[in-house]
Amino acid sequence: MYAVIKTGGKQYRVQPGDLLIVEKLEGEPGAAVSFGEVLMLGNGDSVTVGAPLIEGAAVAATLIETRKGEKVKIFKKIRRQGYRRTRGHRQTESVLRVTGITGAGQEAKWDGEVKLVTKAELNARSRNLPFTAPVAAAPVAEAAPAAPKKAPKAAAAPAEAAETPAVTEAAAEAAPKKRAPAKKKTDNAEGGAE
User: Fold this and answer.
1) Domain of life, per the record (predicted)?
2) Do 33 and 96 contact (CB within 8 A), yes or no?
3) Of 55, 123, 61, which is closest to residue 96 (Cα–Cα)?
């Protein structure tokens, strides 16, 4: 069973279990969202078309995350005038998992489990990087004990400390001396060039 819904000025064909990216919707991750603007329902060969909407039909979904989408570049140019402007924009979008469709005396549910895994976490996993959620990271940082400070190098290796000054003196003698920059010749305003 599938449905065609309208949200954010666009139409989407959805089935139970689909991952859907729409214009920004209000709500926290894990919240239930319902779409009442169902334009069409289909089940196999039977299709029900609304005029313009189907009465009593609804599509249920779960909000996974609200994020910024891909960057869109806006480039303006007027040729031969030296006018070039580049701007970028990232539209906010909501990611949903469709969990059920009801209407026209039929009902279809999705039996799977909705996992609230964000795109940032998936990107980190694909690169084998550790991922910590920005919200959860702050309390963990406060609870973590302070790392012990390292001891100074002189205290850690007393035998090497005696050899170090001799090595640095020999290196200083072998290093070339820096020369002062050469002075520029200037013309005397009174006497001309010397």
Assistant:
1) Bacteria
2) yes
3) 61
Answer for the pair 40, 50: CB distance below 8 angstroms, yes or no: yes
- The DSSP secondary-structure symbol of 185 reads P
Task: Look up the domain containing 51 and give its range.
Answer: 2-133
For residue 109, tell me if it sits in a domain. Answer: yes
CA quadruple 121, 122, 125, 129: dihedral sign: negative
| Domain total of the chain | 1
CA pair distance 115, 133, nearest whole angstrom: 15
Domain for residue 187, yes or no? no
| Residue 72: partners with Cβ closer than 8 Å, 6 or more residues away | 88, 89, 90, 91
Query: What's the rounded Cα separation, in Å, for the pair 90 and 75?
Result: 15
What is the torsional sign of CA 21, 63, 103, 9?
Answer: negative
Per-residue model confidence as pLDDT tens digits over 45-101: 989 999 999 999 999 999 999 999 999 999 999 999 999 999 999 999 999 999 999
Q: Is residue 168 in some structural domain?
A: no
pTM: 0.62
CA dist 189 → 40, 106, 182, 183, 194 (Å): 92, 101, 21, 18, 11
